[in-house]
Inverse folding.
């Protein structure tokens, strides 16, 4: 069965593409190979931060050539805008059980750092993993409110709001196969 050509309207709202499909595939393959080397022989649990990390997780875990378990944590930090509002809302009360496991926490992007910081604090307080490492697809380099960097990161980017490949604006664009910058006219002024 042949695949459908991409609908050009899918890209209509983008001003430009920041990371294309080939670059994503290549970099994620490299990250998977690195993680495979680093965790060989160890009990690994990949903990994905939902929703944003879901697309990255699906591609990355198939490049990790090791037995592993999957867990997830669901949080909200943007609440519909284009700037992190500073509070992280957990959608579940219990953290995954990581006892006896090496945990690799995955997210789509590191921006202010508050989300990952809040999650790491809770995991350290409430679980007992053998180790806790972090992995993000994108890292904004100039926007940190909390001094934190991921152990594995795909691409360093500037201070701009991006969508696609799991990243949303007000819940949309997560299924774009690229990472891109929205045209300003598609960003509604915050109330
Ligand atoms: P932080 O807490 O400011 O580091 O933000 C992390 C979370 O905000 C990520 O998990 C994303 O869900 C979201 N986020 C940060 N920057 C962007 C962006 O440019 N586009 C879409 N979502 C973003
Ligand atoms: Mg997110």
């Amino acid at each position: 069965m042949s695949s459908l050509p991409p609908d050009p309207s899918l890209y209509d709202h983008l001003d430009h593409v920041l990371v294309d499909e080939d670059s994503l595939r290549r970099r994620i393959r490299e990250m998977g190979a690195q993680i495979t080397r680093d965790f060989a022989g160890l009990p690994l649990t990949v903990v994905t931060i939902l929703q944003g990390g879901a697309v990255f997780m699906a591609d990355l875990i198939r490049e990790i050539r090791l037995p592993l378990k999957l867990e997830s944590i669901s949080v909200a930090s943007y609440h519909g805008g284009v700037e992190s509002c500073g509070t992280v809302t957990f959608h579940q009360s219990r953290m995954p059980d990581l006892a006896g496991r090496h945990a690799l926490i995955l997210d789509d992007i590191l921006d202010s750092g508050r989300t990952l910081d809040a999650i790491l604090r809770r995991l350290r307080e409430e679980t007992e993993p053998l180790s806790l490492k972090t992995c993000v697809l994108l890292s904004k380099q100039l926007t940190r409110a909390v001094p934190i960097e991921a152990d594995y990161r795909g691409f360093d980017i500037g201070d701009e709001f991006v969508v696609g490949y799991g990243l949303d604006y007000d819940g949309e664009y997560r299924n774009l196969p690229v990472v891109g910058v929205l045209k300003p006219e598609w960003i509604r002024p915050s109330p």
Notes: The longest helix spans residues 21-39. The chain has a mean pLDDT of 92. The beta strands are 14-19, 44-50, 68-76, 89-90, 102-110, 131-140, 152-157, 162-163, 179-182. The domain at 21-158 is CATH 3.40.50.2020 (Rossmann fold).
